[in-house]
Design goal:
Keywords: Plasmid. The protein is of the alpha+beta class and about 450 residues long. Helices cover about 45% and strands about 15% of the residues. It folds into 3 domains: about 5-125, no CATH class; about 130-195, Arc Repressor Mutant, subunit A; about 215-435, no CATH class. It is built from 17 helices and 13 strands. A hairpin with a 4-residue loop joins β11 and β12. It starts with a helix and ends in a 6-residue tail after the last helix.
Length: about 450
């Protein structure tokens, strides 16, 4: 594989893993994607630790790995050794004199490097034909949908066996990696995937061609609102038919990112798949940007204290100074961003020139400045602000311990399903991420 092929394999490994994590580990045939799952987990983990430099608290590393579904034994015996072996010295495992893993030193500066390492891991596994077909199928159908016979012919010409292609398509459909749609009343089937809509807006019309004109126009209004205000709170679309919103989410016309509080309060924010107008495989597959913007939207519209009044000024200050604080809100408002390794919360004191004395409290330290800079580009768009008026029904307690989030893939696969969040466990996790608890 050349560099671009590795990035492609890494991208689709991550995409596959984000789908597979929704299914039970003992789901029938899930083992057929074992190597894609491994390299995808490695990619998600690398995306989480990127920018931290040196981490010498192994318990913290394990907690960061757990946020992407990697258990400690799997991390120590499989993920870390594979990452170290195939990262071209960009990941160094720190070991004690007895060989025990004590920490990580990383030299990764972009998500593209993350995907390249993930792809290199996949390349060096004993991958099945079904997995290689999966990468090619998802990549080809991202650009345009194909008739089933067309995609089969293309894959066979690429050197894959017809039987393997047929099985691979069935398995991809089983785990929602692709969509197999019936074309009208004919026997023809269309092969597509949820990542297509970003650069192919005309395909949206094909997907909803059976809607009447009124519903079609209303659906267009939904897309327009979210295109112009990335991270728009879905609940604010209260004048829109809920069935149309579900259709837009399920087909991938909008990317719904859900933030879940420690009290199991859910808030959903809408993005369009073309959130980043950039090069291929640079469309926020690791969810960093969507989560960052959703967290700012959360702070704008739902927090009881230290509301973000001016997101642009907030981000400029964070980028310029590398940190913001001290504010008590930093201790509780940004735990989701901590889990993704985008920021880190530190408790310390700092001299305040205006007050003429030291102030102690929680500081929000920026780890991934490239994510913040890209978010600032979007926020600076004059159409970003949505000026929502708060009403008496707003629950202002939900921000206090933001506990989890669902990626767009998970929302589409299983809308309405969320894990139970235990407050004590969340508090422990947060303390480990902040190096406050070392076992």
């Amino acid at each position: 594989m050349n560099k671009n092929d590795k990035v492609k394999a890494g991208y689709w490994s991550v995409a596959t893993q984000k789908h597979l994590k929704v299914f039970r580990a003992d789901s029938c045939n899930i083992d057929e994607f074992d190597n894609l799952d491994l390299s995808g987990k490695a990619g998600m983990f690398l995306g989480t630790i990127r920018g931290n430099g040196t981490i010498t608290n192994i318990n913290k590393i394990e907690k960061m790995a757990n946020t992407v579904g990697i258990k400690p034994r799997e991390l120590r015996t499989i993920i870390l050794p594979e990452i170290e072996k195939y990262s071209d010295k960009k990941i160094e495992i720190l070991r004690s004199s007895t060989g025990d893993i004590e920490g990580i030193q990383e030299y990764i500066f972009s998500n593209k490097e993350v995907l390249e390492i993930s792809g290199n891991i996949f390349e060096n596994q004993n991958s099945r034909a079904i997995e290689r077909i999966t990468i090619e199928t998802m990549d080809k159908t991202k650009k345009i949908p194909y008739l089933e016979n067309e995609i089969k012919d293309i894959l066979i010409k690429d050197g894959f066996k017809e039987k393997d292609v047929e099985i691979a398509l069935q398995l991809q459909n089983q785990f929602k990696l692709i969509n197999i749609l019936q074309k009208g009343k004919s026997n023809e089937k269309i092969i597509s995937n949820e990542y297509i809509w970003g650069s192919n807006h005309e395909k949206i019309a094909l997907a909803v061609s059976n809607l009447d004109m009124e519903n079609r126009n209303e659906l267009g209004d939904i897309i327009s609102v979210i295109q112009n205000s990335q991270g728009y709170p879905i609940e604010k679309l209260n004048t829109i038919d809920n069935n149309l919103i579900k259709l837009a989410k399920k087909t991938g016309m909008i990317d719904p990112t859900t933030i879940i509080s420690s009290r199991s309060i859910r808030k959903e924010f809408g993005f369009t798949p073309n959130l980043i107008d950039g090069l291929e495989f640079e469309d926020d597959i690791l969810d960093d940007l969507k989560l960052f913007l959703a967290s700012i939207r959360f702070g704008e519209n739902y927090t009881q204290h230290t509301t973000i009044i001016d997101p642009e000024a907030f981000l400029k200050s964070l980028i310029r100074n590398g940190e913001i604080g001290p504010h008590d809100a930093n201790a509780c408002d940004y735990t989701l961003l901590e889990k993704k390794g985008i920021v880190k919360v530190e408790k310390k004191s700092k001299y305040n020139h205006y007050l003429g004395r030291n102030r102690e409290g929680y500081f929000l330290k920026l780890i991934k400045d490239d994510v913040a800079k890209k978010a600032l580009e979007i926020i600076k768009n004059p159409k970003y602000s949505i000026n929502i008026e708060h009403n008496n029904q707003t629950n202002y307690d939900i921000i206090n311990n933001t506990g989890n989030y669902l990626s767009p893939e998970e929302v589409r696969i299983n809308i309405g399903k969320s894990p139970e969040i235990v407050a004590e466990a969340e508090a422990y996790l947060t303390s480990v991420l902040r190096d406050e608890t070392i076992l």
